[in-house]
Design brief:
With about 290 residues, the chain is of the alpha/beta class. The protein contains 10 helices and 11 strands. The chain folds into 2 domains: about 200 residues, HAD superfamily/HAD-like (Rossmann fold, 3-Layer(aba) Sandwich), CATH 3.40.50; about 80 residues, Pyrimidine 5'-nucleotidase (UMPH-1), N-terminal domain (DNA polymerase, domain 1, Orthogonal Bundle), CATH 1.10.150. Bound molecules: thymidine-5'-phosphate (TMP) and magnesium ion. Magnesium ion binds next to loops. Keywords: Cytoplasm, Hydrolase, Magnesium, Metal-binding, Nucleotide metabolism, Nucleotide-binding.
Length: about 290
């Protein structure tokens, strides 16, 4: 059915359930389908040749517009809070206030750096960001079959939109909800717009009445893509879900986190920097029979 599921990076706890879900989504057809995806480390790569790739925040942190002192402070925050973010032994309740702290402090630091709106395109162009291999096919297929793609990100909206724009895949079926920068009249960053989206509040609480999902209420089949345990609630605002297939990229601390990921995600992709499996499943679902 989907040859890509034979890749050695694929782990599935309940194969029959997964095959049943994929078949059911295919039966419903492309007109019932929507894709809901995280951005950082899900659509973008986690690593390349043994080096880490940047998140949308890191793209700003590493850029020439941030002072050395600012860079050091942002790196210190990352080294303190990232291990907490991915710690499988802490509960979400424990993590949530700490994530609010991280995002608030990082956004405050960034807002002191006089970042210019006009510099964003160059900052992205000069960064090491990479979309996962196969991103072209993913965005092209969804566009071709008019499947809405909702990107729900705790990263920086202005940066990730620029990434997909520079990759020439920002099609009209792509809709982004994220943290957006607020610029003053001179185009200088003054703060970030609310609501603050962090890893563990990706649910209706920040989707303001979930107008987007209401509009798509007939799209009852969902493919959800994420890399964090916080991404699992991204579809909570969808009014009537019939079939949801959750695909999780397990990028870091693979051994430690495998059990939790296998329990939560239908398909787990371990250290897989490609979108091969997602594309294979979509090809099967959208293929005319
Ligand atoms: P997301 O992939 O769930 O949308 O979350 C965005 C990622 O951004 C999350 O893994 C943490 C990371 N991050 C940074 O790298 N630097 C920062 O300053 C902040 C606040 C988050
Ligand atoms: Mg992510």
């Amino acid at each position: 059915m989907v040859p890509e599921l034979q890749k050695t990076t694929v782990r599935i706890q309940q194969p029959e359930r997964v095959m049943g879900l994929i078949r059911a989504i295919k039966e419903q057809g492309g007109s019932k389908l929507q894709v809901i995806s995280d951005f950082d480390m899900t659509l973008s790569r986690f690593g390349c040749n043994g080096r880490r790739c940047p998140t949308s925040h890191n793209i700003l942190d590493n850029s020439h517009v941030i002072s050395e002192d600012g860079k050091k402070k942002l790196k210190d925050l990352l080294h303190h809070y990232y291990p907490i973010e991915i710690d499988p032994n802490r509960s979400l309740e424990e993590k949530r206030p700490l994530m609010v702290e991280w995002w608030t402090r990082a956004h405050e630091l960034l807002s002191q750096q006089k970042i210019q709106k006009g510099d964003i395109a160059q900052i992205v162009r000069e960064s090491d960001v990479m979309l996962r291999d196969g991103f072209n096919e993913l965005f092209d297929q969804l566009h071709k079959y008019n499947v809405p793609m909702f990107i729900f990100s705790a990263g920086v909206g202005d940066i990730l939109e620029e990434i997909i724009r520079q990759a020439n895949v920002f099609y009209p079926n792509v809709h982004v909800v994220s943290n957006y920068m607020d610029f003053d009249d001179n185009g200088v960053l003054k703060c970030f717009k609310s609501p603050l989206i962090h890893t563990y509040n990706k649910n209706n609480s920040v989707l303001q009445g979930t107008a987007y999902f209401q509009q798509l209420s007939t799209r009852t089949s969902i493919i959800l893509l994420g890399d964090s345990m916080g991404d699992l609630t991204m579809a909570d605002g969808v009014p009537s879900v019939e079939n949801i297939l959750k695909i999780g990229f397990l990028n870091d601390k693979v051994e430690e986190r495998r059990g939790k990921y296998l329990d939560a995600y239908d398909i787990v992709l371990e250290s897989d920097e490609t979108l091969d499996v997602v594309n294979g499943i979509l090809r099967f679902i959208l293929m005319e029979t």
